[in-house]
Every structure is written in C-alpha cells, then in structure tokens.
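Input (histidine kinase):
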Amino acid sequence: MKLFAAMLLIGASVHMAWAAEAPVTLTVLGRSTLQDSQLPLSPADLKRLSAKKQLRVGTSDPDYPPFDISNHNHEFEGISADYLALIGQLLTVPIHVLRYPNRTEVIQALKRGDIDLLASANGFEAADPDLLLSDPYTLDQPTLVARSNDSPLVDPSLAGKTVAMVDHYLPLSAVQAFYPEATFKLYPSILNAIGAVAFSKADLYLGDSVTASYLINKSYLNNVQLVDFSRMEVNNFSFAATRRNANLLHLVNAALQAIPSSEQMTIARRWNAGGVSISGTHQVQFSVEEQRWLAQHPRLKVVINEDFLPFTFFDEHERFRGLSADVIAKISLRTGLKFDPQKGTSVDAMITQVNQGEADLLAALTPSVDRERRVSFSRPYLSTPFVLVTRNAPDSPNNLQDLSGKRLAIISGNASRETIERQFPTVQIIEAKSLADAFSLLAKGSVDASVSTLISARYLIARNYPDQLKISATVGARAAQLAFAVDHASPQLLSILNKALLSISPEEMDELTNRWRSPVVLDDSYWSKHRAAILQGFALAAVLLLSACVWIVLLRRQVLRRKRAERALSARLEFDRVLINGTPHPTYVRDRQGRLLLCNRAYRQVFGVEDERQLLGTTVMQSLLSSEEQAQEYHRDYLAVMAADEPMLRDRLLVLPSGEILTIYHWILPFRGSEGSVDGLIGGWVDVSDRQRLVEQLHAAKQEADNANRAKTTFLATMSHEIRTPMNAVLGMLEMASRKSDQGVFDRAAIDVASGAAKELLALIGDVLDIARIESGRQSLAPDSANPYQLLTSVARVFDGLAREKAIALKLEIDPALDRNVLIDAMRFKQIIANLLSNAIKFTAVGEVRITAHAPAAQASQPMPLSVSIVDTGVGICEADQQQLFSPFSQAGKQQQGSGLGLVISRSLVEMMGGSLELSSTPATGTRVTVRLVLPAADAPPTPACDPLDSPPSLALSVLVVDDYAANRLVLSQQLTYLGHEVQDACDGAQALALWNAQPFDVVVTDCDMPGMNGYQLAQAIRQAEQARGEPGCVLLGFTANAVAEEKQRCLEAGMDDCLFKPISLDQLSTRLQQLQSQYFSNETSGELTGDSLDAHLNTLTLGNLSALHTLREELTSATQADLQQLTELLACDDRAGLAHLAHRVKGGAKLIHYEQLILTCENLEAHCAKEVEGTVLVASTAAMGHCMQRLLALLQAHASGQSL
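Output:
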C-alpha cells in the first residue's frame, strides 16, 4: 500500500510538470440531479442569465479530492462538480470548467475576469479583500493527522512540532499566529502534505476533515490517522467571485439555498466514504453537567484485554489496535477526551479495576445479567453471533446437543451461559479467565468445545489455531453485543459515551466494522505466534548449556586448584620479596658460619653495591667494612647469638667504607629450621644518626638554657646592685635635704647629688630599653646634620670631671678634618662614645684614657670615613672573657662594676650605622676599642641650641594637666608654673573633659594610661567636640613612662599632637613648649597674618595698581569662600585624596601672601592624608587649616567694609 501511495505522489508530481500555462477545459461530471428545477428569479436576474452564454468556473492543479477531481479524460468530478451541476440546472446555464496550473494563477484569472467563479474556496480566498465568498456548500473542520505509530495525544499548542499544510488551505500568517510554537511546511497538494507525515518528513498534517478522512478511508495512505480537531476559526467551503461580480454571487447563493437537504446529505455520503461527517454531526450536544465533567476529566484510563482479537490488542510497537480502538478514536474526536490504554488480565479482574477506580472504563465487553450487577454498559457498537468452536476432528461435537456430558469452556459472565445451562443442563461448564485461555484449553484437549463471538473466533483460529480448531455452529438465538462498561458511579461518563456513539452514523460504523470482518490476520507479533516453540527451544538450549557447564566445571576444577596453589605460592614469594626489598631499613640473613644468604636493596645501598651476587656467600670480615676490628666484633656477635639462641638488640657505631660514621640500632635474631635447630640469623638495623644528633642538640640547648638562666640570675643581681646604688644616693640625699629644710637650711649639694643619682638611674633604664629594642629589631636611627668634632668634644667635656676625680689623665686627639657637617644620629653617636669612655675610665685605676679620632682630608661634599679609638691603661681583659664580652648582661672577670650592657648597645648601634666596633685587650696592660664609620656629608650646619631657660620669656599658656598619680601631677604642674604658664590639673579623663568643656585651654597634657577614661579616649573625645563645635584644635600632648616610638605613634593616631616621656626635665619641658609656641601660638612676626601685612603683600603682587589690587582681593575672597565650603564637604565624605589636593592648592596661594601659619596647617593636613591617620587626627588638622582660612577671609572682608582686625 505504501508503494501505491508513493506512485500516487510521483504521478501527482508528473502531472504538475506537464501542466501548461494555458488553462485546460474540463467536462463537468455531476452525479446529482433535481426533479423540480424551477428557481423563481426576478426579471433582472433572468436578463443577466440570458446574457450569460455559459458560467465559467475555475479550479487549480493539483486536484483537491474529494472536492475537485480530474482524470486523463479531462472530466471534472467531486463535491464541487455535483454542486456545480445542480447550480447549472437551477440557473439553466451551462457550466464550463477551466483548470489552471496552480492556485495563484486561478485566483489571478478570477480577478482578470477570465472566469466567473472559483470552486472549493475557503479561508485562504476569504483573506483576499478583492474576493467574496458564496454561502458554504460544505463545512470546513480543521483536522490534525499523525502517523498511526505515533501517540494519538497531541499537545493543543503543537509546541515543537513540524506541521505540513497545503499552501492554499489557510493563510500562513493566521496559522502561525494561532500556533506560534509550531513550524510549518507548505506543499502544493494534499497528497504531498499527508505524504510528508506518512514518510516522517513532518509530525502532523493540518487540513480540512473532509479531504483527510477521504484519503485515509480510501486507504491511499494506510499508516496515518486523524488524531484531533483544530480549534481555529475558519471559513467553510464556498464558491468565490470578485466584488464586481456580486450579482452573480447572489444568483449562486439562491441556487445553493434551493438544493434540498436530502440531496446535500446524498452528496456528503457519496464522497465522505464513511469518514468524518461533513454535515457537522461531530458537534455533540452535551449538558452543562456533562461539559463540566469533560473539563474535569480530560484523560481517561481504559482497561483492555490484549488477547481479545480483533477488538482489543497491542501490535508489535505496543500500540492499542482493534475495532474498539477505532471506535474510541471516533469518540475522542467528538468529545475531546484522551484515552490511556491499560492492560488487563481476566474479565473479572478488569471489572474489579473499573469498580475500584483504577480504570475509568472497559473497552470491550458483552453485557450479561451477572455483569450488569457490577458495571453499567453503554449502547452497543457491534452485534455479532455467538458460535461454538471445537477441535478440527471428525468426532468433534457439531452442536450443543452433542456436548451432553462433555465439557464446555466459557468466559466468566458470558451472556450465553444462562441459556446453555437452562436448555442443556447436562453440559459441564468450565469457566475460563479469557477467550485466549478457553481456546488454549480446547486445543490441549482439556475441554471439548468453547463459546465465542464469531469475529473473535475467526481471528483467533486464523491466527493461532488454523488447523486445530474450527467453528461448528451458532449458539443461541440472540447475537452478542459489544459495548463499553463503566462503573455505576459514573453516570455522566456513560451518558457522554452514549451520545458520542449515537453521533457516529451507521455508515461510518459499518466502515469501521468492515475493516475487521476478514478472518485473515497478519501477525502483529512474532513472539505471540511462536512463543511456545521459542520457549521450548530456549528450555532445551538451557538444559544442554547447563550440562556443558557442569562438565566444564568438573574438568576445570583440578586446573583451578592447581592454578590457585601456583598463584598463592607466587603471591607469597612476591610478598616476601616486597617485604624484604621494600623495607627502607637494611635487612640480611646469614647461615651458621656467618655467610650472607640474603640481603635487601637498602643493605646494598648502604655499602654502594648494585649486584647482590658480590655479597652473597661472604662473611662480615670479607665484606666492605673499613675496620677489620669492627668486622671481627660483628662476626663474634653473630656467632654468640646463634650459640646462645638469644636475640641481641643495641645501639652501636657503623663505619662505612666512605668513612661516614652511622649510629645504628642493630638487631640480630636467630632462626630455626624444620628440625628445630638454629640454622642461621636474621639481622638489620635502623639508622638513628639523626636521633643522636637531636639528642646532642637537645643537650646543648639545655646547657644554653641553663647558662641563660644563670645569666638572668646574674643580671637580676647586677640590676639590683645597679639600681639600689643610685637609689641609695637619691633617698639618702633627699632625706638629708628634708631634715635640713626643717632646720631652715637649704642643702643644694644634697639636691644635686640626688639629681645626679636619679639621672644615672634613668640612663640605666634607658640602656635596658635599648637592649630590648635592639634584640626585638625595633631600634631605629634618626640621622641629622651634626659636627663630629663638636660631638666628641662635648662627650669628653662631660667625662673630664670623672677622670680628674680618679686622678687619671683624659686626653683628646681629634683630627681637624672632623670639623665639618655630616649626617649622623648625634644622640646615638654620643651614646656610643659615652658608653666606651665610661667603661675605660671605670676600669682604669692609674694612667690615662686617650680619645683619638681621625678622618682623611676630603671635600665637604664627600662622605667622611671616621675612626675613633678609646685606649686605656686599665686592668685589661683576658681572651676567654673577650669571647663573652658582647653578650647581654655579661661582664669580664670579677670586677662587676656595671650592668654589662654598654658594649652590647654600642656595637649594635655601630652596626646599625653601617660601621664596626673592634676590641683588643691585654691583661694588666690595657684595652683599645675602635669604632669605624662612614658618614655621608650634610648640607648645612645645625643651628646651635641655646639654653631654653636662658631664652627670652615665652607666651604664657593655659595648660590642663591630667594624671591619676598625684605626685606626677604635682611635679608637672610646678614645672609648668615655674616656666610661667597657668596650670589646672585633673585626676582622670572624665574630670579633665568636664574642665575642658567649661573653659578653653591652649595645651592639654594627659597621662596615657589611666583608669576609666584613658588619655587616648580623652583625646578622641576632645577632637570630636572640637569638630562638632567648629572650633580650632587645642594642643594635645601625651605624657607616658613607656618611652618607645610605638607609643608616640599611638598618641598621634588618637588625635594628639605629640608625646612626652616621663621623667622630663625642666629644660626639656621648656624647650618643647617653646617649639609648640612657635608652631601653634606664634605672634605676627612668626607667621600670623595681619591686615597691614596682607595689604603689603597684595600691593607687591599688583605693583601698586589699584584696579588690579581690587580685582585680586575679590578673586581671593571668592576663592577662599569656595575652598572653605569644599573643605567641609570633603571632610564629611572622608575624601582624603581630595583633602590633600585642596590643601596643596591652598598652600600655593598662602605662599603668595606669605601666610606662614596657613602654609604650616596645609602641610600638616597633606601629611596626615598621606599617612592614613585616624579620623580624629584628620579632623583636628582640617579644623586648624579651616581656622586659618577663616582668619584670611575675615581680613579680606574687613578691608572691604573699611574695618580692621
């Protein structure tokens, strides 16, 4: 059949190829006539018809069956031809048909007026605005066609589907708008389009139901089926005419309306060929409840007996087939329901499934009284007689009378059972689960006959029992009726099924049943037909295979045992090999004579031997040990172990041929043979050299720890002595001064002695801190411009009095080349020379101490190679003491007259400066210490410092002193009062903050570590208050005994301006306050701007031009106002880069008018932005700069208003 369809497609293509450009005239072959052909027409209509000699109707190639069909005799038939014949008869006008090559050309011919009408026009032509359609002569129901082996369930959206369609069926744009997720392919003819589906070129065909049903029912393509209706709104089939021919279309409509309904039905039946109804009978009228039920149950489960041929079965592709399947497909088209088939077993089981809700309906069942008690039956869709089936043998019974006393197989619940039992009570009834089981019992001889329907019997006999069974007679007077069965609780479903069955015309139902009346059945499954033979063959093959397997197992068992033993032995040998060679420690085996039998790879690697055969059979005395004495010792141990039958384990030395000495943990174990006697030994060792070295290092570390502990004890004793000595002087002299003051005597000498002792104590503490900083790597240098000549002279002058007290000479020999400026940390350099000079004087009883400094002559711009030697005639230092002399807290000999820190600090500082310190000494002769440095040249000499107490009196400042220790508050307050400043004090941070809020202070000096609010928190609180008030920042100084650089950095980060270290002398305090006054509280001559100085600077810039001066003042005023606004905004958003840029720009303007105070605040703000300081510090710097800018703005505005500031 597929070949025939292909030939049709090829013929259609050839027909298209030879179609000429000119239209072909066709003869109308109409099969319908009317007895009464009188059509009442108006005189105008009659006049128009008389003018018409013929009615020209156009059609297109290829044919559109069953509407437009042509043949090789140039005859035109089909639905359109039948209606055209009737229209010609009614209008008494001959019909002349012209066939054009394609639909486009025939439409163009209609518009040109070459033809009057166009047949089989629908929505495609209705979309053309130039055309009009007549009344429909056939309804158009869009239908979807798919392959029979595809699922009949189609997604209504056709998502992802490829859809074939005739190019002139519907406008493509309308179809794509309705199905946006589908892909459409257009074909010139319906055969091409449906053929694309049949041959898997497309998934679905979209076309009208009439043509699709016609082609399928005529078996042109027998592997496709109608699966669903489309919901598109379309035009029905009509005749088309142009708008200028509307009068003609009016006559055609009158003729169509005059055709009786009976004749229309005749035409529909003639060309529908049992397919889908054309007259619209698909539109089954359901009640509101039934429509609601359909909406709630779109899919139903139908249970079937897969062996109930030809009504229900599954083909080789597991597709539901049979007469019942065709009827269900018709019902699906009419109701929109989708059915999911489920396999059932026996009739009782399937009925139970329906009763329990596991299935919605049973596809095929004959009603009976017994079954009607359990389920409800629809109206029957097939009637067929019951027949008696017997074996194909001469003695088989021919009718029910012959079955007296014999066995009859019948399906449980069969409608004919009651009749048989009543009329033939002697027949023995045997119930079967299904018809297939009943026929199987009959074929095996278990029963003598069986009852079945005629159609089923023919199929089953032709399919499975062609030579075994036969149909002998009919049974009963009533035929078997096949119907659907539903549960009693589903009346809506039963009503829907009945209405759908009623909508199927008898002709359509006959067409369905005629397909399945033939007794010839092509096997749908090879397995079903040959199942028994296949199973028997498999069973025989399984027995033979099992016998062969048993025989093979018996034959191979011995082989497997032997191979298993061989594998075990090989595995054991491999295990032994891996165990010996894989062990990283040397292992060996020797016999009773000490000869080597076996050794592993690690053993050979120790002695550097690759080939094991070089060592096998040799004794230890013949091996590669470098010492014969050692070899004999090992050999004696081997013999002793085997003689005593006791293992030996101990640490010993092993000297290798290379001379390397290993410390090994050596073990020797005797081993016994099968007779129980010692046959040899197994030995090996573990290299514990690393462990031994660790033990030695641990011992050395313990010694060092003990020495360090002793050094610590010595240091503590020394520190106790060094601290108590000056403390004795401090306490004693202060006590004496206190007693004498009670007597009204001021003892200046006692005060001076106590002060000197306290300074010595402070220097000692500084030395200890220096050592701690040096050992932690936190000591740093601050090189500056200084004169080495002056520095050495200064240090010598300090120690000159000490040397005179001891009656020794202090001589100074300095090269004049040192009298120039270099870059050096002057304080650290003097500390180095002072430490060395102090030691020299301390350990010299008689003689002299000489300081010699030398530097080669060079230009001032070149570096200075400096060499300073300090030579004494003291006790000297022995060689042993010199080794420990540069260790912290160590001293030479028994003359413990110091902390032992001076030399360590000095050498560390010299090395930090990039130089060296060398010591050479001879006991009882003296010591020489030489310091060598290379000092870079400096640009300018430092300004000589004057005595701060001799300086002119400074500006009196208002100072707030904050310290929780009363003595410190008292000392600092009296120092500040002595220097002429106004002082108030507070004992903690909270009290200080309250005083600061009550009155302004120029300077706040606060201890850093206090209970409650500490100094850092106080500084942050003050800075935040200043920022909130918009006030300029006061000077905040930290005051702490923690004299390290980190503490100063912490103070700066908290918002302070600087940090002072306890104790502080009056000179140091005065010097620092003078620096602060020059920086923050300078008068006009030190950088403060006045109106007169501003005028002078502006006059200079404008060269006295009054106009330019006025313009410059205005620009400077507006720029300052804008900069103040920008300063506030940048601080609010913490834009440090913007603040730095603004400070740099303002500094440039300040330099033009020589506003030194503003320049200084700009530079401070730039530095703070670059260092990423804390917010409080940044706020203070910004406030200081803003204060100066406000001062400048006030001066400018005062001049504009004629005032003065």
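The first helix runs from residue 2 to 17.
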